Amino acid sequence: MKRCGWVGDDPLMIKYHDTEWGAPVHDDVKLFEFIILDSMQAGLSWRTILNKRAAFNDVFDGFDIAKVAGYNNKYLEQLMAEPGIIRNRLKLEAATNNAKCVLAVQKEFGSLAEYIWQFVGKKTIKNSWQEDSSIPASSPEAEAMSKDMKSRGFKFVGPTICYAFMQGAGLVNDHVASCFRYTEV
Length: 185
Known about the structure:
It is a single chain. By secondary structure, the protein is mainly alpha-helical. It has one domain (about 25-175): Hypothetical protein, domain 2 (Endonuclease III, domain 1, Orthogonal Bundle), CATH 1.10.340. It is about 55% helix and about 0% strand. It has helices spanning about 10-20, 30-40, 45-60, 65-70, 75-80, 90-110, 110-115, 140-150, 160-170, and strands at about 125, 170-175. The chain has a two-stranded parallel ribbon.
């Protein structure tokens, strides 16, 4: 079975690629999870984030947006001692900040999904890359998303992070054309 080259032979990466990456997500909690995980990835490998995903799920109360928005400094200090997650104070503060921003977006747009999917005209952009090296690190849509999110107060949402988020959440299909998942998502 042919997969995208970035997957490698790590079982966790294979499972993520084969079942999640690039599949369109319209659930607000799952979209919030991806925003958090992609912001945590800044400067790190996706493999590192996947290996810490279960711990993030635990400490972020199943990515419950309202709960994360209510975290105080005392709780963030406790998270700084949690070995199972990325213990970067700025990224942890961004998670709480971004949860508050998501709540504002939900109030304005009705859902996070409605807001997020507007950047791709409400349908997946289907690319047809022949090799992994052709896949860009950003796009005009990711740049627009980043700019708008920053204007709303979101943190750790540069164009590269937004593009990785778009790939993971299925706003863009960046499976290489020879990958078995290319036609599935």
